[in-house]
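Q: My labmate handed me this sequence with no annotations at all. I'd like to see what the chain might look like in three dimensions before we decide whether it's worth expressing. Could you predict it?
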Amino acid sequence: MSKILLSLLSVTVPFTLFSQPRPQIQKPPAPKQQSFIDLGLTMGIPMESFAETTSSLPFGLTFNYLHQPYTRNPFAFGGGLTYLSAGSRSVNRNLTADITVGNTLIDQLVIPLEFKISNQIVNGHAMMRVQGPSKYFKPYLDLLAGFNYFWTSTTLYDRSPESYFDTDENNRIFRKTQSNDITWSLGAGVGFMAKLGSSVYLNLGANYMLGGKVNYYDRDQIEQWNIELNSSAFVPNQSEQSFNEDDVDVEAFPKSSRTHMIFANVGVTFLM
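A: Here is what I predict for the chain of 272 residues:
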């Protein structure tokens, strides 16, 4: 009898073990929402009247943040900033100061100064993106609206070993905004994202942006600037010398045009 029971158990137990259903591994649910951060290099290509008045090709960086409220919906909303350098120049000038006793010239000081001139553009925009649903390749269309801000700044440095003028920790005497102007910007763009990693995409795109009229300096103009110094700004035997914006004269006239541009972008997008 015992032998019969052992025989039944030897057959029943393996059958029972193998007949039990295996636990199923559940995949994590897809996220209901997600965000994107674009970081890229940008080339600005002037168009129409802007291209006729300047030969500059501004170059810089772009940052965008977009939020997609529903992953099954192709719409994402956000905004961003593009910073472009539109040309820079360094100019070295010597300030010659006369040292006199009464009406007698006894010595001259030659003080080396450096001017750094830079043209810059910032484009700020709100945007809506419509993108494809594919996981590995996402074509997209952007609609953008915002502003263009153009400005030119002049920074003066004291390059003398004695540091005759009152400066900050970078030997900077002062910084002056020579010109600034702001206008509207409106446009659209296309591009695509190609998956590189679990949450990183290669991003290539271009935007055609219409821009209003502004006054600005370009790269060619600042190359021709004639900078004149007022030597009376230096007072001999004074412990701290000062130099202000009125002691520097720049003979230059800004250009004026609309600011239509193509923004060509290459960078990466991070999925958050």
